[in-house]
C-alpha cells in the first residue's frame, strides 16, 4: 500500500504551482535553495521563524534583510498600532514623514534631505534619475556583478530587457581604482554617476569590504568630474552603522538608497541626498500610491530609535563574530576548509573546493534539520534579537552539520 | 504688533521645506492644489478625513484611489491584526499569497495566474517586461498622455530620463482605432504589446470610457500580431467591477496591472495573466524586499471579499450618480456650465470656459471650506463608505460653492 502524506508546505506548493508562475518567483523562490527548505512560512517571533509545517528555526536570513530588531519587536509594534489607530494611507502624508526625514538628516552625515518610496529598486532608480537630472548627463558606472535591483536597467537577468535599457551603463570592478578610472575616462563628459554597494556582496562569491583608498578615489573622481557618488545601502544600511555604510571608511556619498532594515520589515525605502542634489530632487517626478503612508514611517522611527538606543550594529557585530569564531573553530576541528567573508552582521559562508556548492547545500540542509536557517550561497543577516544562547544553539547545529559533512 | 499664528499644517510645511525636496514631491504635493488645501493629514475614518489642523472632510479622493471600503474598515482591520499576530515579512511567503492568487484567478476572467509587488509602477513595468520576454520583441504602444507610472520608461515628465528609456515606445490616441492600426503598422514585426488604461483618465482633461469597438480592435490587432494586450487597471481596478475593467466592454487582456484599491490602502500591487504568458512569467526576474509580505495580502483578501459581499462597485456607482445628478442640477440652476465625465465611481468635474482652471480652483476651495474634499483637475474616487447622507452633505457644500462662483 502506497500512502502518500503531503505536508502543508507540499500542499501549498502544489496549489501555488497552478496560480503563481513557476510556483513562486524572485528571491524568495525556494527553488534557489537545496531540497528540504520550506517555501511557506507561518510565524515569526524575535529571531525565530516557523514554517507552515510547524518547524521552528533560529533564523539567519532575517527575511533577506528587513528584520533587524527581530520579528514583532514591541517598540515597533506599539508605534505601528498607534499610527494605525489614526491613519495610514491618507490624501497626503502625516507628520511622521517630516519627523522621519528630520531623523535621517540628523543621523546620516551626508544627508540634507530625504524622500521615501517602497522598494529598494525605487530608491536606486530614483538616485540614478536624480543624478541624470542634476548633471544633465547620462552615463552610470556600475560594478560588474553588483545587484542594484530588479527592473530592466539593473536586473541581473536579461530576459525581457532591451539593449537600450542599459545603453548608458559602464562597468568597473569593485575595489579596483584603476578599473574605475578607466570607466570614468570612457564616460568622458557624459558621466552622471558612479553607483556602489556598501560592500561587495555579490551572490555566491566571497564578500569584500570596501577598500578605503578605493572609496576615497571614487569620491575624488566624482568630485573632479562633477558626477554623483551614489551609495546603494539598500542591503547593508542600518546593520553596520546608522550613519551610512561608507562612513566606516570615511567617505560620504552624494546620494544614498535605503530600504530593507529601515522599518524592521514594514515596506519602506528612502533616498537621502546632499544640497547639491536638492533642486533636482524637487523637480524630478517620482511617486507611488503608498509612498506617503504613515504606518511604515512610524515603524521606521521606532526601529531607528531602538537601534540607536541599544547600539544595534554593535550588538549584531558581536553576535556575528561569536557565530563566525564558532564556525571557524568547528571547521578547523573537522578539517574542512571554509571561507567566512563580509561584515559579521552579514556573513557569507562558502566551502573550499566546492564549485557547485554541493558541500554548502549539504551543510545548510543538515543545519536546517536541526532548527537553524542558513543560506548556502547568499550573504546572511544577523538581527539585534539574536542572543548568545541563539548563537550557541546555532553552533550546536553547525557542529553536527560539519560532522555529517566529514562523515561523507 | 504683528502676531503671526502658524497652524500645525503651516509649521509642518516649514519643517518639511528643510528636509524634503521642495517641501513634498509626487502626486501628494499640495502645490498641485489651490491655496487652502492642507498638505498633512492626521486621521481617517470611513469616508472622512481629518487634516493636522483638525478640519474634517467628506473625502472624494480616497487617498488617490487606494481607499475603496473606507478608512479602517473593520473586516480589513480584523484580517490585518490576525495576520500581524502571526507574521508579515518572513523568509518566504505565507499561505495568504496562494489564497490571494487563487482568489484573483477565480474572480478575473482572463487570469490564469497572479504575481504580487508593491507599486502600480512595479506592475505595469512587469507587464511590459513579460510581454517582451514572451514575444522576443521590443515595441510597446502607449496612448498619448496616458499615465502608466513614474519611472523613466513611462514618467510623464522627462527630467532625468534618457531618450533610450523610451526608444521602443510608439503612441496612439485612446479610442482611435485608426491611430492604433497605424502604430501597429509602424511597430511591424517588433510589436511586443499594446498597453491601455481602463479608460482615458488623463490629468486635467474630460475622461473617456473605452469604446467597445476600439477595445475589440485592440484585441484583434494583438491577436493578429501575436502581441500582448496589457490592461493598466492600477487606477480603476476593483472600483468599476471586480472582474477587470475591460470586462465591461467584453474584451479580455492578456496581462493586467493592479494596485491602488486592491487592499484598501495597504501597499500591494499585482499582475495577472493568461496561460500564454505563464512561462515567461516564471522565467523573468522581478522581485522586491516586501513583495511576499503577508499582511497586505490578508488585507486584500478581506477587501475583495467585502467588495463582493456588498457589491461595492454598484454601491460606489449609485453614490457617484447621486453626486453627479446633484451637481448637474446645481450647475444648471446656477447657470454655470460644467462637464462631468468618466465612470460615476471615478468622476472628473471640469468647468466650461475655464482654461486655467480658475473656476475649478475657486469651486473646490469653497467646497473645502465647507468640509468637502474634491479635486479641481484630477479624477476623484468614491468609496463604498460613502452613504446617501455623505453625498447630501457634499451637495450642500457644492450648492454653496456654485453660489459663491455665481456671485463673482
From TrEMBL, chains A, B:
Gene3D superfamilies: Aspartate Aminotransferase, domain 1 (3.90.1150.10), Type I PLP-dependent aspartate aminotransferase-like (Major domain) (3.40.640.10). The keyword RNA-binding does not apply. The keyword Transferase applies. GO terms for molecular function: pyridoxal phosphate binding; transaminase activity. Keywords: Aminotransferase, Pyridoxal phosphate, Transferase. Its cofactor is pyridoxal 5'-phosphate. It comes from the Bacteria. SUPFAM superfamilies: PLP-dependent transferases. InterPro entries: Aminotrans_3 (IPR005814), PyrdxlP-dep_Trfase (IPR015424), PyrdxlP-dep_Trfase_major (IPR015421), PyrdxlP-dep_Trfase_small (IPR015422). Belongs to the class-III pyridoxal-phosphate-dependent aminotransferase family. This is Aspartate aminotransferase family protein. The lineage of its organism: Bacteria, Pseudomonadati, Pseudomonadota, Alphaproteobacteria, Hyphomicrobiales.
Amino acid at each position: 500500500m502506497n500512502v502518500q502524506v503531503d505536508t502543508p508546505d507540499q500542499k501549498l506548493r502544489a496549489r501555488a504551482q497552478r496560480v503563481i508562475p513557476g510556483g513562486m518567483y524572485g528571491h524568495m523562490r525556494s527553488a534557489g535553495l537545496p531540497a528540504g527548505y520550506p517555501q511557506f512560512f507561518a510565524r515569526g517571533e524575535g529571531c525565530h521563524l516557523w514554517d507552515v509545517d510547524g518547524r521552528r528555526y533560529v533564523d539567519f536570513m532575517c527575511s533577506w534583510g528587513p528584520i533587524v530588531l527581530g520579528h514583532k519587536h514591541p517598540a515597533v509594534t506599539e508605534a505601528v498600532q498607534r499610527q494605525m489607530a489614526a491613519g495610514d494611507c491618507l490624501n497626503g502624508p502625516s507628520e511622521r514623514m517630516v519627523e522621519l526625514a528630520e531623523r535621517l538628516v540628523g543621523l546620516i552625515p551626508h544627508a540634507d534631505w530625504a524622500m521615501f518610496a517602497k522598494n529598494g529598486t525605487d530608491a536606486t532608480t530614483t538616485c540614478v534619475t536624480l543624478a541624470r537630472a542634476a548633471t544633465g548627463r547620462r552615463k552610470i558606472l556600475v560594478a560588474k556583478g553588483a545587484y542594484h535591483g530588479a527592473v530592466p536597467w539593473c536586473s541581473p537577468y536579461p530576459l525581457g530587457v532591451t539593449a537600450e535599457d542599459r545603453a548608458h551603463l559602464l562597468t568597473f570592478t569593485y575595489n579596483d581604482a584603476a578599473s574605475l578610472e578607466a570607466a570614468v575616462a570612457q564616460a568622458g563628459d557624459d558621466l552622471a554617476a558612479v553607483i556602489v554597494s556598501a560592500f561587495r556582496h555579490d551572490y555566491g562569491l566571497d564578500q569584500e569590504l570596501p577598500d578605503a583608498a578605493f572609496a576615497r578615489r571614487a569620491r575624488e573622481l566624482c568630485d573632479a568630474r562633477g558626477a554623483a557618488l551614489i551609495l546603494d545601502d539598500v542591503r547593508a544600511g542600518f546593520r553596520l552603522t546608522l550613519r551610512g555604510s561608507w562612513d566606516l571608511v570615511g567617505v560620504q556619498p552624494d546620494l544614498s538608497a535605503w530600504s530593507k532594515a529601515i522599518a524592521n520589515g514594514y515596506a519602506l525605502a528612502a533616498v537621502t541626498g546632499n544640497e547639491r542634489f536638492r533642486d533636482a530632487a524637487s523637480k524630478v517626478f517620482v511617486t507611488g500610491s503608498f509612498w506617503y503612508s504613515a504606518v511604515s514611517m512610524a515603524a521606521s522611527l521606532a526601529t531607528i530609535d531602538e537601534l540607536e538606543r541599544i547600539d544595534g550594529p554593535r550588538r549584531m557585530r558581536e553576535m556575528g563574530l561569536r557565530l563566525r569564531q564558532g564556525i571557524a573553530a568547528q571547521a578547523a576541528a573537522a578539517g574542512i576548509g571554509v571561507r567566512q567573508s563580509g561584515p559579521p552582521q552579514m556573513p557569507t559562508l562558502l566551502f573550499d573546493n566546492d564549485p557547485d556548492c554541493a558541500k554548502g547545500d549539504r551543510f545548510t540542509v543538515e543545519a536546517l534539520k536541526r532548527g537553524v536557517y542558513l543560506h548556502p550561497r547568499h550573504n546572511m543577516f544577523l538581527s539585534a534579537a539574536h542572543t548568545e544562547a541563539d548563537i550557541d544553539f546555532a553552533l550546536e547545529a553547525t557542529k553536527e552539520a560539519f560532522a555529517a559533512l566529514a562523515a561523507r
